[in-house]
Amino acid sequence: MMRRFYNGHVRTRHTPTVVLLDLDDTLFDHEQSAREALRHVHDANAAFTAWPFDAFEATHAKVLEELHLDVLAGRRTVDQAREERFRRLLAEAGASAGEGVVQRTAVSYRQAYQAARRPVSGAVELLAAIKPRARIGIVSNNILEEQQGKIALCGFESYIDVLAVSEAVGAAKPDPAIFEYALRELSVPASEAVMIGDSWIADIAGALAAGIRPIWFNRSNRPAPAGTPGVSQIASLTPAAAVLDVIFDTNTPSDIEADVRCASA
Ligand SMILES: [Mg+2]
Predict the structure, then answer these.
(1) 18-21 and 193-197 strand pairing
(2) Which class in CATH covers the domain with range 31-116?
């Protein structure tokens, strides 16, 4: 247990016995896998090749986000949403594509995505480094089977003590209920856990709402929202030793250090 001065207050912090991690774009590199699949579909489809890839990718992201809401609400299955996504993109490209083309494009994207799946650099090494010191839980918003496939492919399986996937749990981040499910399965209080994730809303705000210390995985150097001081950040999963320092708090984050200096001045 450690005591820290924090914004003028003494905060009691337990050494973590549980490390919770997000999966997509924290341990599993969804962004790169999706980009590679999209590049394949773009380059292989005459309807898309005249469309500059960056603009094609941006429109794809917009359509994906719209349809993801339908999936979360149960209005479409993942497969239906994928077909609809490429139906809309083909229409946007001005192609008079029949259903056969729509379906083939969706299947081709899916196959390219499956083939491109990979862990974020350093993910396995980090899990291996955490394992002797804490139990590990995955807290992820997605379909259970999809996440199990990624975990198996990336070699994460043997490191994971609990898998909390929104479809199976019946609650999605940032709802504290999904974090509470993971903590309950591991029989630990929130004060003994940390949560590492890339999404400020889902992972950081979600963890804070559940009383769990968050660590923001900020790969692309985004600015942190105002009004939330003291959230630790990591920019990379490597080297694992540096991430362990942040998890187990062996180095004091600089903003807290500054507060300690003020307090003792
Ligand atoms: Mg994520």
Answers:
(1) parallel
(2) mainly alpha
Query: Ligand 1: distance of its center to the CA of 26 in Å?
Result: 6
Residues of the chain below pLDDT 50: 1, 3-10, 252-265
Interval between CA 222 and ligand 1 midpoint (Å): 14
The full set of domain ranges for the chain reads: 17-29+119-247, 31-116
Q: Which of 175, 141, 163 is nearest to 71 (CA)?
A: 141
Ligand 1 centroid–CA 265 distance in Å is 40
Report the predicted TM-score, pTM, of the whole model to 2 decimal places: 0.85
CATH superfamily of 17-29+119-247: HAD superfamily/HAD-like (3.40.50.1000)
CA of 140 to the centre of ligand 1 (A): 7
The residue assigned the tokens 């974090």 is: 179
Over residues 156-201, the pLDDT tens digits come to: 999 999 999 999 999 999 999 999 999 999 999 999 999 999 999 9
pLDDT tens track for 24-35? 999 999 999 999
The Å distance, Cα 263 to ligand 1 centre, comes to 36
